[in-house]
Structures are given as structure tokens and as C-alpha cells.
Amino acid sequence: MQLRDIQGQPVAIHREDYAPPAYWIDTVDLTFDLDPAKTRVLNRMRIRRNADASNQPLRLHGDELNLARVLVDGQGASFRIEGDQLVLENLPDAFELEVFTTCQPAKNTKLMGLFVSQDTFFTQCEAEGFRRITYFLDRPDVMASYSVLMRASKDQYPVLLSNGNLVEEGDLADGRHFAKWVDPFKKPSYLFALVAGKLVAREQRVKGRSGRDHLLQVYVRAGDLDKTEHAMNSLIRSIVWDEARFGLSLDLDRFMIVATSDFNMGAMENKGLNIFNTKYVLANQATATDADYANIESVVGHEYFHNWTGDRVTCRDWFQLSLKEGLTVFRDQEFSQDLCAEASARAVKRIEDVRVLRSVQFPEDAGPMAHPVRPDSYIEISNFYTVTIYEKGAEVVRMMQTLVGREGFAAGMKLYFERHDGQAVTCDDFAQAIADANPHSDLTRLLPQFKRWYSQAGTPRLKARGTYDAAERVYTLHFDQSCPPTPGQSNKDPFVIPVNVGLIGASGRELLATQTLVVTQAGETFDFAGVDEEPVPSILRGFSAPVVLEFDYSDEQLLTLLAHDTDPFNRWEAAQRLGLRAAMAAIDAAPGAGAPVLSNDFIEAMRRVLTDTSLDAAFKELVLTLPSETYIAEQLETVDPQRVHAVREAMRARLATALHAEWQQAFEDNRDTGAYSPDPRSAGRRALAGMALVSLCLAARESGDTVWPGKTLQRFKDAGNMTDRFNALHALVSSGHALAAQALASFHAMFKDEALVIDKWFALQAGAPDRGGDVLPLVRQLMKHPDFSIKNPNRARSVIFSYCSANPGAFHRPDAAGYVFWSDRVIELDAINPQVAARLARGLDRWSKLVEPYRGAAREAIARIAARPDLSKDTLEVVTRALQ
Ligand code: PHE
Ligand code: ZN
Predict the structure, then answer these.
(1) What would the pLDDT profile of 822-831 be if each residue is shown by its tens digit?
(2) pTM above the 0.80 mark?
(3) Beta carbon of 124 within 6 Å of any ligand 1 atom
(4) How far apart are CA 140 and CA 20, in angstroms?
């Protein structure tokens, strides 16, 4: 495989070009002499020619390795280096290959391969990091048995971990020691891991359903042991859930989680040795918010669930990435929902997931990086760890479950493992197993068409209209579907769209309980008989398909749904539609026309929600949250980001002042949640209390009142947990109150040794509402703060991404200074960590929708990056696509 062509341009890899490997690697015995400056790696492999493949040389991948020696069956062998590859010819059918290399972990700022973080060694091999450790067939369809011998200074690296079981350990001369690990399962190289350093572990022994004993460990730095209980509990819940829901048990004696503060992503599912970003492990009530607790639970679940969906059955090639990621996100979403005691909490989780999908994945699907859930080509695979592969991929799995039912889906999973355990397979194999286990289902009948969800990019539009025949008592729903063009795909064929529908009467009575309609044609009609009155249709309940639903609801109909829909998702959606409608009207109105940004009807509806004692606090908080600026922007043909920002801020201010009394009541009702527990009910109450404080401080800003800011500062000081403390701080900062400075300073002093809390401190300031262009200078200041380091991904995200990617009102400046800052940071990061740089480079994906002067300035900033020589292929791919 050639990475660059003759001109030095990166070359795209195509799914259609897949060919099985020319050789198999059966066993890998690795010996590491760990040293931060220069680690020696001896790699002994048993290799055999693939009888099914044509006779080719063996081409092993490598990246930034120093090669010292190559032996074939113990003899010096002739080899050549071609680009990044080690090439051997004239090999026997089966042989032992020994490769001796060195690498420099301390200099590894890309955090791929073997790297050092806070004096501890970690690895990250997905997708193509193993080649930075040794020469290998670094592709997921080459599965081998690994044994690992690690040697290191005992004093500096007392804990030595790798995949599988510890089979031997002991002391060596010169203060060194060793450990030998053997993984009982074959695995692709991307699941290899090792860790060496000064770590401590929380341990727990548990028994699986069949009586098997497991040792669970969560490894952290010594000072963090008091923040591991929640991760351990989450792991135990994950084990129990996967047995109960899918009959999948833990297949290892030992399961380890290790936390590192330097990590490009959230976490990694290495077999038996998951490596996590500290953000998704460490929590106690003083340092972590409810959102942190919920994220930890779902990420611990996600990585654990990969043990089956990813590790036992893996991907044939990286085009199949969603095979493991879409499925595993679906599983972690279901896990979090199943942990909810109440149906309303399940709905809240669903709404939160859909919000992410629509505000991040829909824009991706409409922009220059749009790609199918199973992409056809890529230049750099790291760029395809996207919300499309993950979140849209999860929606595709969810639709399968909707079409075959929950039990049918579990049966399909069972068949999938019966067929493919121990294999590297494709998305087709998965869909086939689900279908074959449900021979009489709509999925099976429609399988080839259903699979367009894997091959066609773009978000389908589903236009619906309804007619009521009072004489016949028949309600008719007509659907038209279409899908906008995406890069490389101008025409789309119709999708299979499961549409959950119910009907509500004008007085709020449910006339028809949920039914699943399966739309398969470009245009299609469904009749409902025996409908006694003209109904309000509740369409796409639970967001049963990842589409944009258009229905010409009147405001009155939306108010009916908001008040009465039995489907909580559509109840929330009705409020979102009303809010969006108000925003669009205000954006269209001549600036300064003086029309109120929110109608009285809308405000009264929000008042009813806020005071409705039958509704959960968490649900109220979601309903009262207006559609985000990015979501609003997506609905517009051309975007003036400052106008969108100003309108949304005006709407927020109006809700804050108009509902002042209700916000006070909501705060009083929810201010005290007793002894801290991160359960959904208490977390929802804290979220609503927090939102109330934000509103009350905002209203105080309008009126000049000082009482609520004062109360908020007091709450900040007295808070018994991080959620309440941070929410109070947020209220002061986001309302721009003078007391914010003092609270920020004391917050920093309180938590100066807690890196994850300091990340929050940075992020809050870089994400604060802009007042006269003050955020960019502040961001520049923050980058000079002694606690700032661009090399630490979490810290870079907390300052740079919070400003460039999460604060549109401050970032899109008429003077283009935000874009210039962005391009400077992309370039700076690219030399350090291309993966992080390429993610930041996605920040102006939607530039072509912007109005002038933003559009021209954004394009110029992207072009400025693209013009740099020596750009990584990660960043080059992103900016090249953005300019096309
Ligand atoms: N496979 C990881 C997950 O989703 C994500 C990841 C990808 C982590 C690449 C590191 C590198 O669980
Ligand atoms: Zn994953």
C-alpha cells in the first residue's frame, strides 16, 4: 500500500479494492525493553502464506521505526524498505520472522503507538498505531495469538500490564523487573495494548452468571483512587446487563481499565485492557458533574460491550468500522436506557441522543465530509471516527431492531455470534444475521433496500401530509421521501424508513396508539380507518428513523402535541418545532423591527410545562432548552451567524424575564436534592435548578437586579457537589455578571490540582457568550495561562475547541479574527498531533452556507491551512474536502 503518489500527494484507499492478506500471522511474541528515550521491541512471528492469495512479497507496515535486525527462521534475510514498508521476498510457505526495532515513546506527541504520559507508558493502536510499535500486517483481518514480555525499571514502572493473563513476573538485575502476559484470544493488532508505570488499582472480584470468577481492576494514579468507584460500578452494571439482555458473558479472568490524561479519544477497547481518557473514568461528587457521571457510565459500558461487538467479532477492513461502532453505540444507548427506573427517564436519554445526532451528525451529512455509514474511500482512516459511523450507525441498528422487534433482534445477535465468533466480518454479515434470524420480518423482505442506509450518505427528508375524511372516518397520511446529493453521490434511491405513528384528538385523547409504518417508496400513502375526529398526527415517535420530518403543523396542533402527546419524544419535538419556528421568523424579520421574539402562546405553553407537576424536572429542562444555534443554522439556506446568535439570545432573555416567577419556583423546588446521587431523577432536578439560576441571572442582567447574582454566588460557595457548584458558576459567567470574576478565581484556587476540573474552568470561559468581541482576547490570554498546554488534548479541547467549535457567536467575527486564530491553531496542532488538528480542522465544514463577509473569510482561512507544506494527511484530507 502506497501512502503518497509520485507527487507526494496522499492516496485514497477504496473499499472495492479489498483483497485478503497475502500472509497470515498466527502468533506474535513481543519483548519490550521499556525506556522513554529508546524502547527496544523484539517481535517474533509465526507467519504462513495465504494459500488463497496470489504469490506476493510480504509487505509489513511500519511508521517512524528504527529497524535494527530481520531474521527469517533464525537466519539473516534480505529485505528492503519501500516507503513505510518492510518488504521480504522468496519466503518459504511457513516461517518464523524476527524483527528487532526501536522507537522513542517520550517524543511521541501523536499519542498513537507507544507513548509516555506523566511518566507512564501507554499504547494506542486503533486504527493504525501498532505499526508505530513494530513492523506488522497492521490490518484488522489478520488475527494472531499474542504473548508479551515486558522489562522495565521496577522503581519507575512497578506495574506492567498487557492483554490477557499475567503468567509470570519477577526481578531482574540492575533494579529491573519483568512481566509476561498471554492473551488467550486471537486478536487484530489494533486491540494490542500495554501499560507500564506507577499506578494503583481499585479491585473487585465478581462472579458471572455461569459461576465464573473475574477480577476487575480500575488503574489510576495514586491520588485518584477516590474517584474510581463510579467507573467500577458502571463496569459491574455493564457485565450484568450484557448477560441479561444479550446472553453475552465476560470471557476473561481479568478485566482491566486504565486511565490516562493524554488521550486523543474517549477510550479504547483493547482486549482485557481498556485504556481510557481520565475524563471517562474519574469522578467523585466534588469534582464531577452529573453529565460526567452519565458519560462515564456510557463509555465504560461502550468499551465493555466492544468485548463482544468488536473484539470477539471484529471488522474485516476499516470501511466496516460501523459494524463495531454503530452496533456498540446502540448497545451503550440501550444500556443507559435500561438502567433508568422510569419510562420518562428513558425518554430523556433518547432525546439527548437525538439532539447529538441532529446537531452534529446532520450537519456532517450535509457538509463536505459527508460519507456513508460504510464509506467507499478514505485517505486517513482516523478522519472517519465520525458521528456518522458512530451515531448514525447506531440509528441504523436501531431501525433494524424496530423492524424485527426487541426479541427478534436479540435472536439476530445470537445468530451473528454463532456464525462469526472469532472472525473479521462486514456490515453485510451483520445485517444478514439479523435478517436470517427473522425470516418473516419486514427487514428480511426489504434487506437489499434497507442496506442503502449503509451505502448512501445524506439525511433523507420525509415530507408528510394528512387528510381526514369525516364521512368515512378515515385519516390518510401521505409521505414523499428524498435525499439531497452528497459528495460523489448525486442521486439517491429510496430508503426503508420505519415511521412510528400515533394519532391524537384535538382534546388530547389518543385516537390511535403507536404503529410502525414502513415507508419504502419515493411516495406512499397509508390509511387509518375508524378515526372518529380529525386527528393531530404524531409522526416519527421516538425518532424511529434518522430523517428530517416535514409536516405542515399549525401552531395550535403543535401546542396540542406539546400538551398531550403520549410519546414524550414528540412532546419535546413539538416544543422544538415551535421554538425553531419562532427563531426563523425573528431571523427573517428586518433587524430591529421590534417585533417580540416569542409569541405569548409559546411563552404560556412554556409556563405550563415549567409548572406541570406531572412532568419530570429533566424533561422540563429539555423542553425549555431552545434549539441550538447550530441546529437553527442548519435549517437556513444562508447563515448569518451573528443574527442567529442575537435572535437565540433574545429568545433566551425573553423566556428568562417572562417566566421569572416560575423560574424562582423551579429553583426553590429543586435546589436541594439531598445526599448526592447521580441517578437520573436527582440529576434532572439539579439540571432544572441550574437552568433556573441561569435564567434568573440573565433576567437580573436585563433588570439590574443584584439579588439573584448574589444568591448564585452564595450557592457557588455552599454547593455540596460539582454539579450545583458548576451550574452556579456557569450562571454568573454566562450572564456576564461582575461577580463571575471572583467566583472563577476561587474555583481555580479550589481545584488547581484537579486537571479535569481545570479543563472545565478553561472551557467555561472560552465558551462564554460574546459581549462586544471579548471572548477571543480572553482565549488568547487563557493560552498563556501556566496551566495551559496545547500538547494535552483535553486541555487543547477545553480552550481551543470550546471557542472555535462550540461558541459560534464568539467565533464568527465580522473581522475574521476568529477564523485566523482557528487556522493558526490547526497549523500549530498539526505539527504536534495530526488527529487532534484534523478534528479542529472540521470547525468550518459548513463555511459555504455563511453569508459574506464570513463566507469569503472562512474560505480564505481554510485555503491558508491547505497551502501549508508538510501538512499531515489527516488535516490535508479535511481541508481539501472542505474546499471542493
Ligand atoms: N474504538 C474506540 C471506541 O469507540 C475509539 C477510538 C478510536 C479510540 C481510535 C482510540 C483511537 O470505543
Ligand atoms: Zn467504540
Answers:
(1) 999 999 999 9
(2) yes
(3) yes
(4) 11
